[in-house]
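quick one, two chains, predict together pls
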Amino acid sequence: MSDFGQKIALVTGAGSGIGRATALVFAREGATVACSDIDTESGEATVRMIEDLGGTASFVRADVSVGADVEAMVQTVVERYGRLDVAHNNAGIGGLGKPIVQHSLSEFERTMAVNTKGVFHGMKYQIPQMLKQGGGAIVNTSSMMGLVGLAGISAYSASKHAVVGLTRSAALEYGSKGVRINCICPGIIRTPINQKYWDEFPEAEKEWLSIEPIGRYGEPEEVAEVVVWMASDEASFMHGHALSVDGGATAQ
Amino acid sequence: MTDGPVSGGQVSSGEFAGKVALVTGASGGIGRAAALRFASGGATVVCSDIAEDGGHETVSLIAAGGGTASLVLADVSSESDVESLIDITMHEYGRLDIAFNNAGIGLFGKTIVEHTEDDYDRIMGVNSTGVFLCLKYEIPAMLESGGGCIVNTASKAGLVGDAGLSVYSASKHAVVGMTKTAALEYARKGIRVNCVAPGVIDTDINTPFWQANPGAYEEFSKKPPMGRMGTAEEVAEAVAWLCTDDAAFVHGHAMSVDAGMLAE
């Protein structure tokens, strides 16, 4: 893979799951990684994991649903490292496992605020910095549920569809200005978000396997490799794309 | 209830005879055209909008055509408004068979970086939260009525991106997501849920954009492969068809009504 050695990568939701795995792969490829999370302890743990492997990273706390937090997050990264080359807007919360009628307005709004508005805030503040330095690459985390539905997670599915919309539109706006924007649509990945859901709904862990033609759940590291590739120069003509990393789930 | 029920007393047969249809965003454009279409098919139409004057006009137009309609003012981004909209409908007519969740707003011509958080909140509040709230309160009413059909208004921008429409596009993608999930959840309970994805339609929602961008009207007219914009009535026909039994196996679908724009 092309050299990330001079590059500064920002990963939100870096304290666990796909975010942590991606931060580790960026670091492995030589990038300096700004790890962001709402949870300081887990975010700092990711930084230590990177440092233990000989990489360079630091923590910056942000609640991505808060515009001022995201603005400050980007500002902090630029103050620390002088630039921002790659952003992985990944922070998100999971589905609730109940029909749309049983979702409260506040549950719907909370899901949209983190998963969708968080990505909106991310791009709103990252793009101007990338334009200033002549370009950059953004990879947002959507979901296979950003392309299809699944009973029980209407708000989550709405929020992830919206991420695909933001990704495509922003890509059309900034493609000719050097900022590449894509998103990934992971299938069912063995992440803490899903583990929490399975703890609450144990039957789902068995049932959801039928969704995966590959016959197993994905691992965060398998998504991370795809994210880092999409952010690399090898993927220079990939733009405005929602890339499935889903074991074939949406192919059926 | 602001108006009515007002009845012209002439339309009693048709594919929607005996049915109660709710249309949000009924004061103009696609919503008005759909309200008129449901009424001409024999439905009793509950017209809802935030705009009172346009709502009154739609009700009058339906009555003048011999149909039956009433106006209930509601801001779909307000939970209490939507809850009372459904309560009033059920109280007044005893059932809800068809819902066209169509109220929406647009914001044209700003990049994602130029969108303020306030812009974001307003667009998502009406277009996405509004559809969520309508589904949340309509579905129980329809289950009580023995089933029903729901059509949400998404957009071509709910299926692909559009420069200058990032948040609108996000809000309409979210509508597609909710349409699919709600469809999966209620597939075996007698409620069909679909959405329409209109392309460039010549409605009032676009007027500020035409005014702010001279020449845009002519330019956009050429965009659809058919070489013209669609009319609100053409979208209304598609919506009405989705609500008939002819479309009984169409479910969880985002139907393009865009003269082939998405096929390009």
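The longest helix of chain B spans residues 117-144.
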